[in-house]
Amino acid sequence: MKRHDKAARIQAILDEHFPRPAVPLDHADPFTLLVAVLLSAQCTDARVNQVTPALFARAATPAQMAELPVATIRAIIRPCGLSPQKAKAIAGLSRILLDEHDGAVPREMAALERLPGVGHKTASVVLAQAFGEPTFPVDTHIHRLAWRWGLSSGKSVEQTERDLRRTFAREHWNLLHLQIIYFGRAFCPAVGHVVGACPICNWAMSKARAAAEARRRRRPRPAEQ
């Protein structure tokens, strides 16, 4: 099956299961979304949604956040992990938004990526979900599914993003980003993946890729120190 034919069938399945997926991170505006996405690094969306109400009750704007001591931010966001780095980044980007962007979150990729703690994926999510700009944010989960489904070589997250952008129509990128996230959680997890039970993997994943994934799972883990 050609890649574009496979992609069309995959898109139809995603539309069937998740026609109108919600943004998984609770937020009120571009700034609170930016902070929530930053916090989601190596943390579940559910945990972020448990933490952000207390944070945004104290500071829901760049001006308010810049007034909070970094130690206070760190104490609130500690359950999300990596709290020292994330607290410093949140405080720093809030000051930059005030000093350089009149307190607004910029709508340009380059400007977003210059903010502390904001990488390409975070910037892409903010552009897509806060401003409706067509991007195709790719995290490790989407990267894994695209490889399983034969839509990308799996060489890198960057390559997967390029492959998905070439494969799907631009007007569907933002929706597909969310659909794949929800589909992965429901049917195609990282751990306990059963090829035959997944509505997409059961026909789209090649035997070679299934075998390669099985070999990786069988590799012994490094002994704990």
Describe the protein's topology.
Blueprint: H1 3-17, H2 30-39, H3 45-58, H4 62-67, H5 70-77, H6 83-100, H7 109-113, H8 120-131, H9 140-148, H10 157-167, H11 173-187, H12 201-204, H13 207-218
Protein architecture, described:
The protein has helices at residues 3-17, 30-39, 45-58, 62-67, 70-77, 83-100, 109-113, 120-131, 140-148, 157-167, 173-187, 201-204, 207-218. It has 225 residues and is mostly helical. It has 2 domains: 3-20 and 137-218, Orthogonal Bundle (Endonuclease Iii, domain 2), CATH 1.10.1670.10; 30-131, Endonuclease III, domain 1 (Orthogonal Bundle), CATH 1.10.340. Helix 1 crosses helix 11 (173-187), helix 5 (70-77) crosses helix 6 (83-100) and helix 9 packs across helix 10.
From the coordinates shown, what is the CATH architecture of the largest domain? Orthogonal Bundle
Order of helices and strands: HHHHHHHHHHHHH
Q: What helical percentage do the residues reach?
A: 55-70%
CATH top level assignment of the largest domain: Mainly Alpha
Mean pLDDT: 94
Q: What characterizes the major β-sheet?
A: none
Shape: elongated
The fourth-level CATH homologous superfamily of the largest domain is: Hypothetical protein, domain 2
Structural class: mainly alpha
TL;DR of this structure?
By secondary structure, the protein is an all-alpha fold. The protein is 62% helix and 0% strand.
